[in-house]
Write a structure and sequence with these properties.
This protein is mostly helical. Helix content is about 75%, strand content about 0%. The chain has 2 domains: about 70 residues; about 240 residues, MetI-like fold (Orthogonal Bundle). It is globular, with a radius of gyration of 26 Å. The N and C termini lie far apart (about 55 Å).
Length: about 325
């Protein structure tokens, strides 16, 4: 019975959705045909876009507005508290730690990912096994953040001094005569260790995008610079980086957005403890553990406001690139 119900539902979706789309298109054209000829080119695009705009509004705009609305109320969602949840955010040590750590992620993930991606793009452009090398560095992108977090949690595993070390890094350190490091617990190193997981995953993405930008530079310009006596560092600094500036900015802003909404790595590896909390994890804890819906909504609203400028920068850069083609 259950299988039959699922088959009927699947058949209804497969047949019903295309039929609904075709019916909507036919209705739009029927309505447009009855408008004055001057208005038809102006009205038709908006009617065609209307379903997509409704879906975007329902799934994107409405949740954002509703989240901001909830951020103005207490945990019950009934008593209006104004900006009290925002005041709590900027005056509480726990949220300030999450804000500080998010800033760490923004700086380290963005800078190191772009820098390593650019270095590898330049180096791999000169070798015969370029495709294989890029594939190896891009491979971490094929796994989920949860899987990557588990892998590196095992790499960072810590046992007390004198005990057998099961973590790869601490095993290497002890073999070299050093003391094991509590990578996930020690506040002096845990945020850097977590950042490295994100850098390890996203460097391949930056490499592929930056490599495409590098190959768009005309070879004649580089050869002319070499003939004029420029060394490789001068070519990189004065020719490659300026001509790749748009691509570098796009990759950098993408990494900033990823850093601002980082969640999986922190939640899986430390749960936000040991001073590793970030805004997205803090929002989750306030919402599902503390049941503080107003505070969680305030964090979500602040995250959205912070991300919007970087999204606009990316959109502007994409438009500039399209205009140049």
């Amino acid at each position: 019975m259950l299988l039959g119900s699922r088959l009927l539902t699947g058949a209804a979706v497969v047949v019903g959705v295309p039929a609904l789309i075709v019916g909507y298109i036919a209705l739009v054209e029927w309505l447009v045909a009855r408008l004055p000829f001057v208005w038809q080119p102006k009205v038709r695009p908006w009617l065609w876009l209307l379903p997509a705009l409704v879906i975007l509004g329902f799934f994107l705009l409405y949740p954002a507005v509703d989240t901001f609305y909830l951020s103005l109320f207490d945990t019950t969602g009934k008593q209006y508290v104004g900006l009290q949840n925002y005041t709590y955010f900027f005056t509480t040590q726990g949220t300030l730690i999450a804000l500080r750590n998010t800033a760490y992620w923004l700086i380290f993930l963005s800078i190191f990912t772009v820098a390593l991606g650019l270095i590898f793009a330049v180096l791999f452009d000169r070798v015969k096994y370029e495709a294989a090398a890029k594939g190896i560095l891009f491979l971490p992108m094929a796994i989920s953040f949860t899987a990557a977090s588990i892998i590196w949690k095992l790499q960072y595993d810590y046992q007390p001094p004198g005990a057998a070390q099961t973590g790869t890094l601490n095993q290497i350190i002890t073999l070299l005569g050093g003391q094991p490091v509590a990578w996930m617990v020690d506040p002096r190193v845990n945020n850097l260790a977590l950042n490295w997981v994100g850098i390890w995953m996203w460097t391949g993405f930056a490499l592929v995008i930056l490599s495409a930008g590098l190959k768009s530079i005309p070879g004649d310009i580089i050869e002319a610079a070499r003939v004029d006596g420029a060394n490789e560092w001068q070519i990189l600094r004065s020719i490659m980086i300026p001509m790749m500036s748009t691509t570098i900015i796009v990759v950098g802003t993408t990494m900033v957005i990823n850093a601002l909404k980082i969640f999986d790595i922190i939640y899986v590896m430390t749960g936000g403890f040991y001073n590793t909390d970030v805004l997205a994890v803090h929002m989750y804890i306030e919402m599902f553990d503390n049941l503080q819906f107003g505070r969680a909504s305030a964090v979500a609203t602040l995250l959205l406001i912070t991300i919007i400028p970087f999204m606009l920068i990316n959109i502007r850069r994409f438009r500039e690139q399209e205009a140049m083609r």
